[in-house]
Design brief:
Rossmann fold, binds guanine, 291 residues, 10 helices, 2 domains
Length: 291
């Protein structure tokens, strides 16, 4: 079993990005700038945004967090999006999800200028990605594909089972892996909460992407020997530690790892790859805007 080390892989990519940024600055270019809008006080969202800020600093980007209270109106958030769309200093920005329930997420995403949509959530970017046209690919699917590529994992002709059908992970990763492209050419099955007998599919899978958000859903008896497992789950489980919680993936790691050829740990697998993919998208947005 080989651990798909997202932490080490992302660190390597981050230092390549940092070198590219320094080269841009040397010839008079501007540092890429990422802004994150954080609405409310969700603990996980605060951690993710803090990690994104830290990664920006490590890569030589400038960044800013716009914090808005949970009571923010949709109109006020849309005004902030419009301001960032128009701000020439901002290369890319993200609206951290989930948003408070009184705000329509789709309306907010559709208001983002697709050229600054480094999360790749805007329908224009999603559509272009599906057609294989240049676009911003959302960070988690992009990170997963990069991790598979970095480890030289063959995808062509293999059966990939995606667990979960979210707009952010399940459906875009299923689409990418089925494309006629590098880290593509898979036969893809999407399973979700209404799928009957999920184990029937997972036992046939050469590659499993687990993105259901159900802690330790994938058990040892649900996979075949030699399977490649990518665990996207990151559920916080309360405990008596200093932090008050620990992170649990969608895979029962101790049972599945002995049967797997490759497997991601949680934490240290997909999470850091997601963040470095956001940096890649922001660098691309900055280069597009400067050229
Ligand atoms: N919430 C969970 N994942 C993400 C992400 O990749 N981007 C944003 N904006 N919010 C998220």
């Amino acid at each position: 079993m080989i651990l798909l080390d997202g932490k080490a892989t992302s660190a390597r990519i981050k230092s390549q990005i940092a070198a590219q940024v320094e080269a841009m600055v040397q010839v008079g270019g501007k540092r890429p700038h990422l802004t994150a809008i954080l609405v409310g006080e969700d603990g996980a969202s605060k951690t993710y945004v803090a990690n994104k800020e830290k990664a920006c600093a490590a890569a030589g980007f400038t960044s800013e967090v716009v914090r808005m209270p949970a009571t923010t109106s949709e109109e006020a958030l849309l005004n902030e999006v419009a301001r960032l769309n128009a701000d020439p200093d901002v290369d890319g920005f993200i609206v951290q999800l989930p948003l408070p329930r009184h705000i329509n997420e789709n309306r907010v995403i559709e208001a983002i200028d697709p050229r600054k949509d480094v999360d790749g959530f805007h329908p224009e970017n999603v559509g272009r990605m599906m057609l294989g046209l240049p676009s911003f690919i959302s960070a988690t699917p992009f990170g997963i594909v990069t991790l598979l590529e970095e480890y030289g994992i063959e995808t062509s002709g293999r059966h990939c089972v995606v667990l979960g059908r979210s707009n952010i992970v399940g459906r875009p990763i299923a689409n990418l892996l089925s494309q006629k492209a590098k880290a593509g050419d898979c036969t893809v099955t999407i399973c979700h909460s209404r799928t009957k007998e999920i184990a029937k599919y997972t036992r046939e899978a050469d590659i499993i992407i687990a993105a259901l958000g159900v802690p330790e859903f994938l058990k040892g008896d649900m996979v075949k020997e030699g399977v490649v497992v990518v665990d996207v789950g990151i559920t916080r489980i309360a405990d008596s530690s200093e932090k008050g919680y620990h992170l649990v993936g969608d895979v029962a790691f101790d049972e599945v790892a002995p049967k797997a050829s490759y497997i991601t740990p949680v934490p240290g697998g997909v999470g850091p790859m997601t963040i470095v993919s956001l940096l890649k998208n922001t660098l691309k947005a900055a280069i597009n805007r400067q050229s």
